[in-house]
Each structure stands twice: as C-alpha cells, then as structure tokens.
Amino acid sequence: MTISNSRPITPELIAAHGLKPDEYERILSLIGREPTFTELGIFSAMWNEHCSYKSSKKWLRTLPTKGPRVIQGPGENAGVVDIDDGDCVVFKMESHNHPSYIEPYQGAATGVGGILRDVFTMGARPVAAMNALRFGAPDHPKTRHLVSGVVAGVGGYGNSFGVPTVGGEVEFDPRYNGNILVNAFAAGLAKSDAIFYSKAEGVGLPVVYLGAKTGRDGVGGATMASAEFDESIEEKRPTVQVGDPFTEKCLLEACLELMQTGAVIAIQDMGAAGLTCSAVEMGAKGDLGIELNLDLVPVREDRMTAYEMMLSESQERMLMVLRPEKEQEAEAIFHKWGLDFAIVGKTTDDLRFRILHQGEEVANLPIKELGDEAPEYDRPWREPGKPAPLPASLVAEPNDYGLALLKLVGSPNQSSRRWVYEQYDTLIQGNSLQIPGGDAGVVRVEGHPTKALAFSSDVTPRYVEADPFEGGKQAVAECWRNITATGAEPLAATDNLNFGNPEKPDTMGQFVKAIQGIGEACRALDFPIVSGNVSLYNETNGVAILPTPTIAGVGLLPDWSKMARIGGAAAGDQIVLIGSDGSHLGQSVYLRDVLGIVDGPAPEVDLVVERRNGEFVRSAIRNGQFSACHDISSGGLAVALAEMAMASGKGMQISLKDCNGPAHALLFGEDQGRYVVAMPADMANFLCANAEGAGVPFRRLGTVGGTELVIDDLLRLPIEQLRDTHESWFPEFMDGSSNAAAAAE
Amino acid sequence: MKSAVVQLPGLNRDRDMIAALTKIGGKPPVTVWQTETEIPAGVDLIVIPGGFSYGDYLRCGAIAARMPIMQAIKARAEAGVKVLGVCNGFQILLEAGMLPGALMRNASLKFVCKEIRLEVVNAETAFSRAYAKGQILRCPVAHHDGNYFADAETMARIEGNGQVVFRYAEGTNPNGSMNDIAGVINEKGNVLGMMPHPENLIEAAHGGADGRGLFASALDVIAA
After folding, report:
1. pLDDT confidence of A4, banded at 50, 70, 90?
2. What H or E segment, with its residue span, contains residue A146?
3. Is A477 in a helix, a strand, or coil?
4. What is the pLDDT of residue B133?
5. Nearest-CA residue of chain A relative to B57?
6. Among A277, A367, A708, B196, who pairs with A353 as Cys (CB 3.0-4.6 Å)?
7. Distance separating alpha carbons of residues A284 and A290, to the nearest angstrom
C-alpha cells in the first residue's frame, strides 16, 4: 500500500507551517501553482527564521567578516581561520534554545551534536567545546530541572563523543524563566589545504546519504524554533530530536577517513530541516539541481511520508556528493563503522529540486529560489532609550565591605561553576592547558611543540538590555580581553545572537543596535566574525529574554609555556591594576545583588583604550613578566582579586590609597578594559615604568601573602571563607534540600 | 617491549593512550580493531582504553566484552601477557570476567571529571613497581560508572591477596567505590583495571607527570 503524500492546502495548514499570507503568495508566484503538501513543508523549512535569517540578514551583512587570517567567513558550516604552519581552526557557535526548554537533556545534547557535526563536516577534528547557558531565576520552579537536564545533556553528548569542554558561561535571570538559552560552541583543527565545503560540483554525480537512519524525530523542529512559546509548549516535545553520541563518534571517524580518500566533492551535515536544507544548500551553492529518491533513504520507522522524511531532524546524518569511481572504497569505510551509506539521488543541470517517492514526484521546485528568494525583511525598529547617568555618589556604600564581597562571590551568578564543569570531560585528548575556572580555556595544538588555542565565550545581557550598542561592544571586548589575559592573540569570533520577537520594533531596535556595537568593536579590535547563528522569538507569553548576543572567540598562543593563569601568584608578588580606577556602578552586580537595584547605564567601552591596555598586557605575558593575570569584569576589582586569591590559595594585602574615588566604586565598579596582574617585586618596577612610557594607566595595589584577603581597613576575609562561600552556592542549590537552597539565597 | 591498543567503536581515549605509550615507551603501539581475532605476535602489553564502547547504552562494557577480540585477549592474558584496562577498559575487563567485582553508577549519579589523589596500595605489581607503597599520586578521573562493588567474600579475598593496587586517597573518592578502590589486579598479577586516567597526567602540558610511573612499569622502561 502506498503512503498518501497529498493533503489539501488550507489557510490553517499554511499558518500552522509558520508561513504568513504574503509569504504564501510569494510561493504561488514563484512556482505558478499550488504547492503539494511536501512542497509546503519544504518551503516552511527553508523560509522560517531559523534557516532563512529573513529578519536578520540585512543587519548581519554589516558585520566585519574578513581579515588576513580568515580562510572562510560566514555562509559555510563553520568559519575557518589560519593559525600558521598550514594549520587552521574551524569553529562556530549555535543555539539550541527552544528544544532545550521543551526537553532539556535531548535539546542540549543534540545542540552539542549539531555544532560538532558542523565542525567535522569541514574536515576538522573537534578539539574543544564550550557552552553558554542561561536559565531563569534560581527560585523559579522549573530552573533546577532545566539546569540538571541541560548540564547532563551537554556532558552526556560531549563526553561520549570525546571532546573536552574547556569553557562557557552559566547565568540566571528571571527574564529567562520561560526561554532558557543553550548556545553550543565547537572548534576543530584541520589542514588549510584540506577543508571541505558544501558547494556541489559536476552534473549526474551521486548524492550519498551517510550516518544514522531517518526517523520521525524533530519533524518541524526549525519551524518550532522560529515561534514564540505559550502554554501549549509541552505539546511540542515530539519536535525535539534524540541524540546518539556513539553514532556521531563513528560518523566523525568515518568522515575523516573518507575525506582522506579524495572521494568527497561536497559534504553538508543534516541539521535544521534535515534532508531539505542540506540538499538545497549543496545544489544551490553549486548552481545545480538535485534529485532525491526517498525510497532509497535509510529509515528506522515504517510508512514515513515524503513530508516526514524531508522535514525529519534525526541526528548524526550527512549528505555528500561523491566521486563515482570511489564509491566502493567510500562504502567500505562506512560499513566498517557500522553506518548507513546509500546513494539517494544525483546532481542535475536543471536547477530543480525534485523529490521522488514511491514512483510519484512529490516535489519539483526551483532550487535557487528556495534559498536565495527567501523573504527578507527590513523590520521596523525603534532606537532604544538610554538610562540616566548614575554617579557613584548616588549609590549607597555597603554597611560591611566584607559581607558585600562574600555576598557577591557566593551569589548565583558569581559563584563557582564547578558543579557544572565537573560533569564535563575537560581533559580528554590530553591537550587541555586551562580548564574552566580561568579566563579562557586553552588547548594545545597537537603535533606542534608550542602552539595553543585559547577560547572564551562572553556577553553581559544586563548591559545589552540597558544599552544594546554599548552592550554589544562590551560582549566583544570582554571575549577579546579574556583571550588576551592568557597571553593569546585574539584571531576571530563567532556570534550567537539570542533575542525576542523581531516583529516588535523595540526588540528589533535592540537587535540592530547590538549588531552595530558588535561590528564597531570587531573592527576596532581586528576581531572578525567568521560564523554565527541567530535565535529570535525567545519570548513566552509576550515576555522576551534579556537581549543576549553571545560572542565566542578564538586566540592563538605561539608558546604555551608563557601562558598566564589566574592562580599563579606567589607570596611576595606585587599586585598591579592595569587600566583606570573603578568608577562605574550602573548595571553592576554590586547594585543588583548587594543593593537589590537595577539602574543606570551600562559601562562604556573605549575601544582604543581596550586595545592599548590589552596589547600592553599581552606583550608583558609573552615576555614572561607575570606570575598571574586576570581580567576585571562583573563584580569589579574586588571580585577579581578574590578570584585570584582563591585560585592561588594565597592571601593579599591591598591598599586603595593611590586610587581616586569612593571605595565602593573602586572595588565594585565595572569599568572596562582592565586587568589585575601579579609579578615579583623587581618586575613590578620595570612593568610600571613600561606602563608609564606606554601611557597605560596602572595602580600598585599591594602584595601577595598570608591567608587573608585584606583591603585597607575595609575588609579582611580568610581565603578559606571566600572559597567555601564561592564553592557552596551551586551544590547547595542543585543537590541540597530546598531549605539549604533557601538559606543560601 | 611491544604494546597494543584495542580500538572499539565508541572508545575515545584511544588517542590519549597511544600518545602516552608512544611518549613513554619510545615507539607507538600497534592498534587492534574490534573485528580482528588475533593479537599481533610479540605483543607484551595489551591496553583497552577509555570511552563509551558501543555507546554504553547497555551496561558499560557489556557489549564490548562479548566481541570476538576479547577471546584473543583472554587467551593472551592466560598465557601471561599483561593487560591494562583504563576506565571503559576496566569496565570491559570486569564484564568479560577477567577481574573480580563490578562497577556501578557513581554515587552522585553524575559524570565526574576532576583530579583526585591515588594511594599506591601495592607497589609490587608489573604496573605499579615504579611507585613506592603508600605513595600518593595526583591523577584525573572522568567517568559516569566508576563505583566499585564486590560481595563480602570477594572483597575479603582481593584485599587479602593484595589485589587492590590503587585506592582513592582519603577524602577524594569521587564515586562511592567500596573500600575507596580505584584499581584492581587479577590473582595472577598480569591484568590490571583502573578507573583513573594516568595517560592524562604524563607531561608538563598536563601540569604533572605522576601517571608516567604506571606506563614505565608496564613497558619496563623505569628510569634507573
């Protein structure tokens, strides 16, 4: 019995596919007839926000994407950047927000799986992963369940696949109560002359299906990810895919083996919108048509319709255009790894995307138009307002500086993330030089005696909310600064832009201004964006997330033996602040978490100063001058000093007598472009003379020693107490009784 | 000394293990694929590395323990060839009945990756003789199912025979293992299974080299 592929096309059906009436009109005029049910599904998959970038494209084009080291910018599975010696790093970040809220374990797991596949599709072996996670308020009833599921899912996939997770972020804010964020980053190493692309070449060549079988999981996932949420969200669980890291590990090894044989002309992983998106992309890029016969697609369920097969988001699958003379060799490799290998179609010269199923042609569409002619919107946007200035003189001092610092280091957002990262394999592959807990994750380049790569992922959503432009700049600057703080030279970045509903002019305004800020910072810091992803419609019942443009960057260390760490200070070392005195308390965590106020403008980033201070610090690290280095970010100087003291286990005697301004602003101000560094006393004289010569502001703050952090007569805290406070929040929140969690609030 | 690393689909610390054996032994090990039925002639040390063989979707190591290559490994072990199983390799050796006891899910029910301390309990085995009895080593762990268990009779026997080679040092047991057991050897003294990963702590880049002694012992390259 044949499976019916037809269904009447009603306005309800069109709306259920997320297509607006004018978009449907566009389809009618493009193909000159009513689409079949399968064709409607294909259009919906290609034209949704997630795949088409229809609201964001106009603005994404303004980002700087080129540079002397950029081999491949946006538009491929991942960006590619030269790291000398014929080596390159291939990386990208991608969101899996909507699925992770619906089904946290599988949503997060397949987010990791998808980004790993993007990287090895290009011929790179994944060497590092990061995850930027954002959850709702700790006391929201769903938060613990989501944290536990997402972290287990990230670990479950990455650990089994075998990639070290070397960095990331975990933050809580009530604005993520209804929409959590799971942004997964992966980077791989390849040889610059052995990168694989998705552009098909040659007519009549076999199109090969690789990897796992196709099931009904994830049908319509990309469309789901392009919609707002409401109470019916639980009904969307079947649109979440199920991950199989074992198959992905086998697929990695099989693909890398296959690429060695010269059999691959073009290769594309099946991610969002699965078979549809991968086939259209390969054909459209190569100016070729594609014909697929779905009877040849390996399936794991009976009686799947053409519609289901074309929209399935089953994981661990690839599509490839093969050199026909290599077919047997290629097939043998896939069978060795226990994976499917099936020729399911061919390239054609008619620029049509034709789908055959059980002898019937169920789709026949113009392939270029499916991708290129997707709707593109110049959505109306409103310039965001700027909060009034908030001078430190208007902000209360804490009653007790010691308690204020303890409150910050033990707060949900500044406490140790050990509970999270100890569930990730941070050491596998044997190349991890810095694991989470430092400023950036660092991984050495296998096969090279001294080279290493640094990775960091950053954004401060409360700044972006207060001032999207400055917040966008700050996300880039902080990422650049974290990489710099290891001694690495920041090379390029990937962006993962998470926002609310772009059809609302205020949200669109946040998006536009944040991109402008990101672009300005990337240009000023020579830090191009080489890949990325946009996630819009992160709203539930009309409430949007904080605007969260995550920036994940990669830096190069020519000699990892010179790398700086946060915890290297020795007794007797001098502590020096590089950069200006703290003054800016607007949007600080001191204001929010100690005083309970959200107010004021975001700190501004002076990109010239950022660059100058960063280059000064990097050059000193490379000359081996520092025993420890740490950037100053949320929580200001006080939290940075506490983190360094906790990491080294050594106390510090600090004095602010040379600094200008009120103590609470000096200690908790979140001014940008600043670092705390430690070094032996004779080196400090040399460094300060150099800083003076270079016009870099600095302050000598004190000495390392003892077992307490002492700041003038303002505070005196044993390192042990700081550590206990810093380490206890997360485990008590996740594993303690609800009483313990409440007590920690 | 010739070594071999067994490669099964889903194992993922094979490259780490190959690197450690190469760096410490001076030459790369041979690799043996799952479908092979013989271990190459002249191999004196067979290593089953860590990972998630066949996804570990069933009990950890259960499928791997039933692959044809295990028959060849068993036969060699009976002939006296040294066999080392690390992490998933340990789980596989237990499932294959080559070592006593069992590994259960971590007491925390969570995957754990961190550095712990290992106490060398028996320094007279072919795998631990580079160390001193009672020596405390740094060593990373990374596993979900490392909670060692044995019934009372087995436990008394292996403890009495000196078959416990490594214990988690006081306060560092990461998984709830009975008697803090981290590594056990068979009665004959040529098959060792352990959960921690000495291969990830062998050089300056790892921040320490406490793991070298295990490979130096097994490869017979102990520095004088």
Report:
1. confident
2. helix A143-161
3. helix
4. 98
5. A246
6. A367
7. 9
Separation between Cα atoms, residue B194 and residue B137, nearest integer Å: 14
Q: Which residue of chain B has the CA closest to A735?
A: B108
State how far the alpha carbon of A586 is from the alpha carbons of A20, A122, A127, A400, A604, in Å: 42, 44, 39, 20, 10
Q: Does B12 contact A444 at a Cβ distance shorter than 8 Å?
A: no
Task: Specify the DSSP class assigned to residue A590.
Answer: I
Q: Is B31 on the interface with A (CB under 8 A)?
A: no
CB-CB under 8 Å, A424 with B9: no
Q: Which residues have CB under 8 Å from B15's CB, separation 6+?
A: A429, A430
Distance CA A7, CA A23 (A): 20
First-to-final CA distance of chain A: 62
CA distance A327 to A341: 10
The DSSP bridge pattern shows strands A543-544 and B191-194 to be unpaired
Tell me the C-alpha distance between B51 and A362, whole Å. Answer: 44
Q: Give, as one character, the DSSP assignment of residue B51.
A: B
B190: phi > 0 → left, psi -120 to 50 → alpha, else beta; which? alpha
Which band of pLDDT confidence, cut at 50, 70 and 90, is reported for residue A740?
very low
pLDDT of A124: 98
**How high is the pLDDT of residue A739?**
38
Q: Residue A630 catalytic?
A: no
Average pLDDT over every residue of B23-36: 95
**Which one-letter DSSP state was computed for residue A74?**
B
Taking every pair of C-alpha atoms in chain B, what is the biggest distance, in angstroms?
A: 45
CATH code: domain B2-218 is 3.40.50.880
A338 touches chain B (CB under 8 A): yes
Query: What is the tens place of the pLDDT at every residue in B173-214?
Result: 999 999 999 999 999 999 999 999 999 999 999 999 999 999
What is chain A's length? 745
Helix (H, G, I), strand (E, B) or coil at A366: strand
Kind of pairing between the strands at A574-578 and A543-544 = unpaired
Q: What are the pLDDT digits (tens) for A230-248? A: 666 556 656 678 899 999 9
Distances (CA, A) of A560 to A137, A283, A445, B193, B206: 39, 43, 10, 34, 12
The SS3 of residue A346 is strand
DSSP string computed for A528-542: -EEEEEEE---EETT
What does the mean pLDDT of chain A come to?
94
B113 is catalytic: no
Q: Using a CB-CB distance cutoff of 8 angstroms, which residues of chain A are in contact with residue B20?
A: 430
Range of weakest confidence among A19-33, A489-503, A724-738, B117-131: A724-738
Instruction: State the maximum Cα–Cα separation within chain A, in Å, rounded to a whole number.
Output: 86
Q: Show residues of chain A in contact with B55, CB under 8 Å.
A: 160, 244-247
Confirm or reject contact between B114 and chain A (CB < 8 A).
yes
Task: Give which of B116, B133, B114 is closest to B124, Cα–Cα.
Answer: B133
Give the helix ranges, DSSP H, for A340-495: 367-372, 401-409, 418-421, 461-466, 468-484
Contact yes or no for A656/A666 (Cβ under 8 A): yes
Q: Flag whether residue B200 sits within 8 Å of chain A, measured between CB atoms.
A: yes
- Amino acid of residue A180: I
Give the pLDDT of residue A743. 36
- From the list B60, B87, B143, B144, the catalytic residue is B87
Residue A745: pLDDT above 50? no
For residue A526, give both structure tokens. 């020579």
- Sign for the CA dihedral angle at A591, A593, A596, A602 comes to positive
Count CA atoms closer than 13 A to A241's CA, side-chain side: 34
Domain extent listing, chain B: 2-218
DSSP code of residue A229: B
How far is residue B66 CA from its own chain's centroid? 18
The CA distance from A416 to A407, in Å, is: 13
